[in-house]
Structures are given as structure tokens and as C-alpha cells.
Amino acid sequence: MGRTLSIAIICALLASGPLRADDSNTGDAGAKAATATATDKTASGTAAKTEATKADAAKSGAAKTDAAKPATDYREEIEELRQLMREQAQQLGEQQKQLELLREQLSATHKSEVTVSAPAADPTAVHVTGTEMAIRPDAKPTTEAAQDKPKSEDGPSSIHYKGVNITPGGFIEAATVSRSRGTGGDINTPFTGIPYPGAGLAKVSENNFSARQSRLTLLIDTTIGSAKVNGYYEGDFLGTGVTSNNRQSNSYVFRQRQLWASVKFENGLYLAGGQMWSLVTESKKGIENRQEAFPLQIDPQYVVGWAWQRAYGFRVAKNWDKFAIGVGIEGPQTTIGGRAFPNNFFINSPGAGGGLYNFVDTSGYSLNRSPDFLVKMTADPGWGHYEIVGILSDFRNRIYPCGDLPLPVFPTPSCTSATATAGAHNDSKTAGGVGATARLPLVAKKLDFVAHVQGGDGIGRYSSAQLADLTARPDGSLAPIHSYAWLASMEAHPSPKFDLYGYFGGEYAARTAYTFLNGAGNPVPVGYGSALFNNSGCSTELFPTPSGTGIGQPSAPTAPTNPGGCAGDIHQIVEGTLGFWHKLYNGPKGRLQWGIQYSYLTKYGWSGNNFNSTTGAPGPSVRPHAVDNMVLTSFRYYLP
Asked: Do 107 and 182 lie in a common domain?
């Protein structure tokens, strides 16, 4: 309103022509009348001129000596009005800049264009150039000019439903893997399954093609009061059903990777529960879900030495600006390794189909007495990211002392063939470990170095290679295996289109071996990695075991075999990896990228000398060794 009024006054004054001192003795009144008329009607310059002419004619007979003010006084007022208009135009310009900044912020946040409605063309629009002002009837406001730009193809990134934002995501992948020695695995590498030289698989290579790592995600977020609430689902096709196969049409099932909900309060308190990444997994900052720092590589089993688990968890964390601490419980599964221990205990149970467990899973399900307990602390002091994590695990089995023991080596007067369950009891062992991670930005946003170490007893399953948690003693009681893992990483981002990475990591499991004396007084090895175990056949290939018959045909070999006389308990596994990603497109329509990865794997077993418990004679000490070379490729399209 103020802008229109000021413009109208200028128009009226300019249209009335130069003022004369001899117009009439009532010239002062006439000028005021003309000004009032222009103000009330807010007319154009032509209308103002007509009114001024009529007022001049009515007063033509008056005395010329009574003029009220010289023309220069009005010019000063006009100049003042012009200055006022300049200031108003400057304020409008500042407001327009703020509006443009707000539009950019909204576009970056919601990935959608904010359209500002503009009024119709104003015939009195002001065009400002430097300090000059001119009336331009054809001028358009800046907001309307912005509307004339081609509309962006960005659409809403989220679906808004009853106050909840639903955001889909994920990627589609075409991947390949070539291994110099077969593992019988898909795109993910079974690190402990790298075959020793005597295995049939070690004599053949494998080349597999897979789209099964393709992933779908769904993020749900909203606010309840001042709290931020998230729900997240993630799945891929790296699951198998009873009928899954790789024949004419593969039929792999969609599996659940993550499914959790979280709430974050204004004071930094954070709660999350569901199936999620473990607290041992490295975070980018603080302790929150979807802040995990993953290796850049293609292999979905990741890299040897990297700490992770993806299972049930419930956690409570407190995040400050540069420090965070969290505690949580996680669902464990016990893994057991070694050999020659008695068959007088159980630790896992086969899955019950009626209980919705997988009844064909040969490893079974742990009968856990309690969850794993974890605590994690992170620090972000300004340069680098640092973590410390602690793990506490509890293991349990049920032992039958009168069961399958080498009697009378363990003579027990109360044990008879009819009392195999006498003295049965539960045995529990508590174990755990610690881990630490440091991420150092050697060149900001260009080059990161990461160092990770983790060690303890009974925590092998918390690293990629999946070494065993524990073994058993000669009486069937449990013995946690001491293990550690380490990983050094270098990740470079030389340009927005390229990511380069290199990893070198390893995992180690200690000898956890025991002996007892047989009737001849010779030691009998039991447990994990015993120096008395037999490794003499680790490099000798055997004929495949025949299996099955056809109509009118003899038995035929159907599967490769492992070498005989090869304990091969793993001492350590080491992997070196190099790779890159190239982003062909990264914008509002998603991301298109491809990459290649090379990995060199080596597996060493604990040495064994094939000690003969009957004669008491040892054989030559043999330490088995296996190597595999792998090349993986990936072509991915990420949803926007």
C-alpha cells in the first residue's frame, strides 16, 4: 500500500508540469488541492495532469504575487520521496534474497521445488538499476521471473501419510565373482571355507553371476511431541528356501536384513530396538542407527577383520556434541569348533518347524541363558572419530558325565550302562572381549585411514571370518577360544565421481587343546588346534564319495570331497583387498555406478603331527595352507 501511494504522488507531481510563482494568489491552495486529488485517487500520470490543469484554470485570475512556495521546495520533496523509494526498493531486494535462500534450503531438504505464487504484472512496477528508478509498465516481479524457468523433474522423495513420512530406497545390482579356487558360495565369500590343496574344490575355479544383493529399504519418520521417531526396514535376496536353486529359473527368497524402530529426544537420549547392526559396528558419528560406516567393497561378507553382527538388539544411548555412550543387549548364537571331544553334551537344538525355526539348518539354534551385553563409547573431538566397545557373553551346555566317555579312562563308580543320565547337569562359561576403532581424516573429505582391533575369549562370531567361539574339554565342559581381529583401511575420494579403497585385515584363533591318557598311557588330543592332530592328508586329493544311483546305471560321484586326515583347525585368515567405484551419474534421478574389487585370501591351519595314540609315535608336523584369488564386479542403480 505504501509503495503504491508513493508512486501515485510522484506521478501526480510529474504530470502537473513546472510550478510558477505567478499562477494565482491562491497558488499554495491549488498545489495542495492537486496533491490531495492525486493521493485520494492514486491515479495515473495522465489523470493527475488533467486535475491539475482544471485547478489552474479556476485560479487564473488571482494575484501572481501570492505564490506560497518556490518550485525548488517541491523538487526537494520529490527528491526525498525518491530517496524513500530507493530505500523501499532496497528492502524489497533484501527480502527477495532471503526468499531465494529459503527456497534453496527447502529444495535441499525435501528434494522438491518450492514454487512461489506471484501477482499479475503491476503497471507501476519499479525497475531499479544502480541508484536510478524508472516506471516500467512491462516489468515483472522477481518471483514471477523465477517461475518462468523450466520446471525441475524432481519429485517428492517421501510419501506423506497421516503425519508420517515414508521414504523408499535401495539399489538394483548385477554382480559377478570369480575365484581361483571354488568355495561353493555365491557373491558372499565363506572365508573359513577356502579349500586346502587336497580338496576337490581346490582343483577348480568358480565364476558366479548374481543379482541377489539387490536391496530394498523403507524409512518411516515422524515427530511425537519433541521426539523424533524412526522406523526402518531393509531386505535383499541373499536368503535361501528349501526349493531355492540356480537352474532354469532361480528362486531365492527375500530376506530380512534390518527391521527396527528408534526414538530420539531433544536432550540426546536415544532408544532403538529390533533387528539391527551390532554396537561393535563402527559408527560415523555418535551412537545412532543408520550411522554405520561400512567398508566400500562389493563382497556382502565384507572383509576379514571387520567387526559386525546384524541380529536382534535393544539399546539405550546418550549423545552429546562430541561424546556418546550406549549400552545394549543383543541376540547371540554359539559357534563351536575343534574335534575329538566326547559326545556327551548338547549346546544347540535343531530348529522346530512348528516354532517357525528352520528345521533343515544343520547348525541348530543356541539355547541361550541370557543375551550378550555390550557397552560402547565414541568420541568426535573435531579431528577423527574414535570408539571403544566391550562385549560380555554367556555360554551354556548340558553335560552327561556317564555318557559317551572313554571309560574306564574316567572311572565313575556310579556310571553303568543303565545310568547314562546319572549326574547330568548344566555347565556355563562367561566370556567376552574389547575392541577399539580410530578413523583419521588424513586429508579432509579426501583420504581416511581407519585402524580397528578386537580381542577376547568367545567372540569369534563378531568378525567377518566367523572363527569359532569355543570348543570342549575331554569331559564335555566348554572352553572359550581366545581370538583377535585387526583391520587397516584406506579410503580415498579424489573426485565426486571416484572412490578408491584398500583393506588389509586378519583374524586369529588360539590353540585351545587338551589331552587325556588312554589305556596304553598315551595322550589323546581333544579341542581346537592341538599339535597332536593329524594334518598329513591336507594336500592329498581323494576320490569323490559315490552317492545315488540312476535307472540302469551304476553309482556316480556327485560331490567333491575334503581331504582325509586333515584336521586343519584355523590358526589365522588374512585378506588384502583393492577396489574402486565410479559414479556414472549422481543426481536427483538417483545414482548409477560400477566397480571392481580384487581380494587375495590366505588361510593357515594349526600344525599337527599325526600323533599315534596307540603306538605313541608322532609323525611329521604339517601346517596346512590355502590361498584364493577373487575378482568381483558390480553395476548398481540406487533409487533417488
From this structure: no
Burial letters for 24-36: b for 16+ Cβ neighbours within 10 Å, e otherwise? bbbbeebbebbbe
- Angle, in degrees to the nearest 10, between helices 45-58 and 27-41: 150
What is the tens place of the pLDDT at every residue in 212-242? 999 999 999 999 999 999 999 999 999 988 8
**Can you give the residue range of the structural domain that contains 270?**
159-308+323-350+377-412+420-425+445-548+557-638
Q: Is the dihedral of CA 185, 189, 190, 195 positive or negative?
A: positive
- Binning pLDDT at 50, 70 and 90, where does residue 101 land? confident
- Show Cβ contacts of residue 610 under 8 Å, excluding neighbours closer than 6 positions: 533, 534, 535, 536, 565, 618, 619, 620, 622
Number of domains observed in the structure of the chain: 2
Selection from 345, 368, 329, 568 nearest residue 468 by Cα: 568
DSSP of 267-293: TSEEEEEEEEE-TTS-BSSSS-TT-B-
- Over the chain, what is the mean pLDDT? 82
Look at residue 208 and tell me if it is in a domain.
yes
User: What are 490-525's pLDDT values in tens digits?
Assistant: 999 999 999 999 999 999 999 999 998 888 889 999
Task: Give the number of other Cβ atoms within 10 Å of residue 85's Cβ.
Answer: 18
Which grid cell is 212?
A: 541377489
Start-to-end CA distance of the chain, whole Å, equals 45
The verdict on 132 and 219 lying in the same domain is no
pLDDT in tens, 529-578: 999 999 999 999 988 876 555 555 555 667 788 888 999 999 999 999 99
Residues in the chain: 640
Say whether both 330 and 463 belong to one domain: yes
Contact between 468 and 348 (Cβ < 8 Å):
no
Give the three cell numbers for residue 42.
Answer: 492514486
In a domain, 152, yes or no: no
C-alpha cell at 541: 586329493
CATH number of the CATH domain containing 223: 2.40.160
Cβ contacts of residue 311 below 8 Å, gap of 6+? 275, 278, 330, 331, 332, 333
| Element (DSSP H or E) covering residue 600 | strand 590-605
**Residue where one domain finishes, among candidates 147, 169, 194:** 147
